[in-house]
Amino acid sequence: MSTVTDTTTAATSLLRFATAGSVDDGKSTLVGRLLHDSKSVLADQLEAVEHASRSRGATAPDLALLTDGLRAEREQGITIDVAYRYFATPRRRFILADTPGHVQYTRNMVTGASTAQAAVVLVDARNGVVEQTRRHAAVAALLRVPHVVLAVNKMDLAGYAEPVFAAIAEEFTAYASGLGVPEVTAIPVSALAGDNVVAPSAHMDWYGGPTVLEYLETVPVVTDPTADPARFPVQYTIRPQTAEHPDYRGYAGQIASGVLRVGEPVTVLPSGRTSTIAAIDALGQSVDVAWAPQSVTVRLADDLDVSRGDLIAPTAGAPQVTRDVEATVCHLADQPLLPGARVLLKHTTRTVRAIVKDIPSRLTLDDLSQHPAPGRLEANDIGRVTLRTAEPLALDPYAGSRHTGSFLLIDPGDGTTLTAGMAGEAFAAGPGRPSDDEGWDF
Fold first, then answer.
1. Beta carbons of 97 and 116 less than 8 angstroms apart
2. 406 class by beta-carbon count within 10 Å (0-12 exposed, 13-18 middle, 19+ buried)
3. Which of 260-274, 326-340, 411-425 has the lowest mean pLDDT?
4. What is the distance, to the nearest Å, from the Cα of residue 42 to the centroid of all Cα atoms in its chain?
5. Burial of 254 (0-12, 13-18, 19+ CB in 10 A)
6. Bridge partners (DSSP) listed for residue 313
7. How confident is the model at residue 118 (pLDDT cuts 50, 70, 90)?
8. Where are the domains of the chain?
9. What is the distance between the alpha carbons of residues 429 and 82, in angstroms, rounded to a whole number?
10. 4-218 with 321-429: one CATH topology?
11. Alpha-carbon distance 189 to 164, whole Å?
12. Distance between CA 319 and CA 310 in Å, rounded?
C-alpha cells in the first residue's frame, strides 16, 4: 500500500494556475503562446486556428484563438468564460484556468482562482497598473493564492525598455504587499513575439530571471496532506442492507483536507457526538490511512445519526460550531446584496438558511481603505459581511483552510449564486442542534 509520503511526492508534479488581467492585456495570446511553444497543441487544433486566422485576414496564426472557444468570444475579441486547459512538460503537469479580464466577468476570475496554487496577472506595458489589475490582485489575495506572477506584456510595444518594466513591477509589488500577498515574481514578456514566455528573450538582456514557463515548472507546490487538519464532509450515507452486508453503515465523501486514520477518535459536527474510525474503504478495499483529496467511505465504531452535510473531524482540533459568521466576500450577482437579505449558505456539502445581518465595510481598491457602512454590495464589490444562520456550521477560518473556510451565498428563490465568501474567525458559538424555527427570524 502506498504511503502518504509517496503520494505527496508524486502530487508535486501537478500545478493549478490561473491567468488574469484587464481587457486587451493579452491573456489569451499569452496562454496560446505558452501552449504553442511548449508543444502542447495538437496538429488539428493548430490547423483550425490557422484557418480561422486566415479567414479574418491575419498573416500569422492568432494564438489567442486557442483559448477563446466561445463564439461570442471570437466575435467580440474578449474572454467571457473560464477556459480550462490541460497540458504537460517533462517537468510538471498543469491545469490552467484562463479567466476573463472584463470587469463584468470578474466573478469568473473568482471561480478560476479559487483552487489555483499560482496566479499570472498580466499588465499592458503601455498602460501600467489599472483598476482591474488592482481588482485581480485583491481577488488573488483574498483567495490566498500562494504565488503571484506579474507578467508585464507587450514589452515589444514599449521598446523593451527596462525602466518601463521596473516602474510597473515596483508599483504592483507595493500594492500586492499591502494586500498581504506573500510573493510577487515580475517577468517582462511579449506574448505576441514569444519573448520570455517559454524561451528567453534576445531583446531584454537586462533581465536575468526565469521565463513564465520556467517559473511555473519550478515554483514549489506544498501538497503534504499532513500539514492541514483533517476534514471530511459527508456526501452520502451508504446502507446496502444486503445478505452479504446486513449491518454495513458507511459515510461517503471526499476528504477536503488532512489525513484520516483507522482507530482515530473523531467528532461528528454539528451534533458534537464522538466516535472512532473503525474502517476506511477506498476503491473497494479497506485501507488504514486516507488523505485529501481521496474519495472514501468512512465507517464509525458507534451507530450515530450522520447524514449529508455533517462534517467528520479528528476530536483533537475539530472546528468551532457557530451560527454567527463574519466573512470577507466578493459579490458576484448583478442584484445588490443588502442587509436583511434572506439567502442560502452553502458550505461544503451543507446548505442552510441565513440572513445578512450587516455589511460593515467595502474595500476601496485605489488605496485599500475600508469604506464604512456602504449599505450594499454591488457586483464585483469586495467587502465584509456578518451573517446569522438557521443551523450551526462547522466553519474553519479561510486563512487556515481554503476548503472548509469558504462558502457561497445563494438566492433561495431561483438558485442563483450571489456571493463567494471567505470566513473569518467565528466570533460567537451557536447552539449544538439545528433550529426548529421555520421562519427567517433566527
1. yes
2. buried
3. 411-425
4. 28
5. middle
6. 267
7. very high
8. 4-218, 226-314, 321-429
9. 38
10. no
11. 12
12. 12
Nearest to 94 by CA among 67, 117, 110: 117
Q: How confident is the model at residue 432 (pLDDT cuts 50, 70, 90)?
A: very low
Residue for cell digits 465523501?
253
- Helix 162-179 with 131-142: angle, nearest 10 deg: 40
> DSSP state, 403?
T
Cut 0.90: pTM above it: no
Report whether 315 contacts 308 (CB < 8 A).
no
Domain 321-429 in this protein, CATH class:
mainly beta
Question: Distance between CA 325 and CA 218 in Å, rounded?
Answer: 38
Topology (CATH level 3) of domain 4-218: Rossmann fold (3.40.50)
CATH number of 226-314: 2.40.30.10
How do residues 1-48 score in pLDDT, each as one tens digit? Answer: 444 544 444 444 799 999 988 878 888 888 888 888 888 775 666 666
Report the range of poorest mean pLDDT among 45-54, 82-91, 129-138, 166-175.
45-54
Quick one: residue 150, left, alpha or beta (phi over 0 = left, psi -120 to 50 = alpha)?
Answer: beta
Q: How far apart, in whole angstroms, are the C-alpha atoms of residue 204 and residue 201? A: 6
pLDDT tens digit sequence for 62-93: 666 666 553 344 444 444 457 788 889 999 99
The CA-based dihedral angle spanning residues 5, 146, 295, 319, taken in that order and rounded to the nearest 10 degrees: 100
